Automatic annotation (TrEMBL):
Belongs to the KdsA family. The keyword Transferase applies. Its EC number is 2.5.1.55. This is 3-deoxy-8-phosphooctulonate synthase. It is found in: Cytoplasm. Keywords: Cytoplasm, Transferase. It catalyses: D-arabinose 5-phosphate + phosphoenolpyruvate + H2O = 3-deoxy-alpha-D-manno-2-octulosonate-8-phosphate + phosphate. GO terms for molecular function: 3-deoxy-8-phosphooctulonate synthase activity.
Length: 242
C-alpha cells in the first residue's frame, strides 16, 4: 500500500516540480477506541518507510508518541513529527530534537498560533535548528475544527509553516467513536493556504479511503491528487508574479 501510494504521488509531484516528503505512521497510538487499528509492528512498519525512501529517493516522516520512539524512528526516517496532542510534552520534543533529525511540530488543536513559539524554542534550545510547524486546525466546539489563516504569517515568524489540509477537516468525537470529516472542503482549505503563503501542504491520500485503516473520512482520493495540485501550483505561480 505504501509503495503504491508513494509511486503515484511521486509521479504527480515530479511532473509538477513539487518537493515531496512521504508521511506514514509506523504506529497509530492516538485512537478513539481500543479496538481501532494501531499498526503492524513498529520495526516492521519503519522498515517499510525506509523502503519507500530507498525505492523512490524521497525523504520520509513519521510521528512519535513516546520518548523511546525518538531514537528508534530516527534510524529509519528523515523527519520526526510530534503529534498535535503531544506538542507540549517537553521530554518528547527534546528527545526528537536531540536525534538531529528535522522536527515537525503539529500545532495543538487547543493552542493559539503564538503559543507555538515555545514549542519551536524547545527544539532550538536543544541544539537543533531544523524545525517546522504544521497547522491542523483549532478545536471549535466538540465536533469541529477551524483553520485561522491569521495564524499562518504569525507562525512563519517562528519556523517554516505547513498547512494540514485533511486533518484540519476532521470532525472528531463522534458518538460512533470513529472520526468524521469533510473531504469536499479540501481544495477550499488548500487554496486559502497557498494564497496565504504556507511553506508546504500536508495531506492524507489513499486509493480507497472508505477502507483505509485510519482517517479515511477526511482523506483525498488518490485519483483527485493531480488536479488538486495542478490548481494549487497555478495559484502559487500567480501569487509569485504579483
Amino acid at each position: 500500500m505504501a509503495l503504491r501510494i508513494a509511486e503515484k504521488v511521486i509521479t504527480v509531484t515530479n511532473k509538477l516540480e513539487i518537493p515531496y516528503i512521504f508521511k506514514g505512521s509506523f504506529k497509530k497510538a492516538n485512537r478513539s477506541r481500543v479496538d481501532s487499528f494501531t499498526g503492524i509492528g513498529d520495526e516492521k512498519a519503519l522498515k517499510i518507510l525506509r523502503k519507500v525512501s530507498e525505492t523512490f529517493d524521497v525523504p520520509t516522516v513519521t510521528d512519535i508518541h513516546e520518548v523511546s520512539d525518538a531514537e528508534m524512528a530516527a534510524a529509519y526516517v528523515d523527519v520526526l513529527q510530534i503529534p498535535a496532542f503531544l506538542v507540549r510534552q517537553t521530554d518528547l520534543v527534546v528527545a526528537a530534537a536531540k536525534t538531529g533529525k528535522v522536527v515537525n511540530l503539529k500545532k495543538g488543536q487547543f493552542m493559539s498560533p503564538s503559543a507555538m513559539k515555545h514549542a519551536v524554542q524547545k527544539v532550538t534550545d536543544s541544539g537543533n535548528n531544523q524545525v517546522m510547524i504544521t497547522d491542523r486546525g483549532t478545536m471549535f466546539g466538540y465536533q469541529d475544527m477551524i483553520v485561522d489563516f491569521r495564524g499562518i504569517p504569525e507562525m512563519r515568524e517562528f519556523a517554516p509553516t505547513v498547512l494540514d489540509i485533511t486533518h484540519s477537516l476532521q470532525q472528531p468525537n463522534q458518538t460512533s467513536g470513529v472520526t468524521g470529516g469533510r473531504p469536499d472542503m479540501i481544495e477550499t482549505i488548500a487554496r486559502a493556504g497557498v494564497v496565504n503563503n504556507v511553506d508546504g501542504l500536508f495531506l492524507e491520500t489513499h486509493f480507497d479511503p472508505a477502507n483505509a485503516k485510519s482517517d479515511g473520512a477526511n482523506m483525498l482520493h488518490l485519483d483527485h491528487l493531480e488536479k488538486l495540485l495542478s490548481n494549487l501550483v497555478a495559484i502559487r505561480k500567480t501569487i509569485n508574479t504579483l
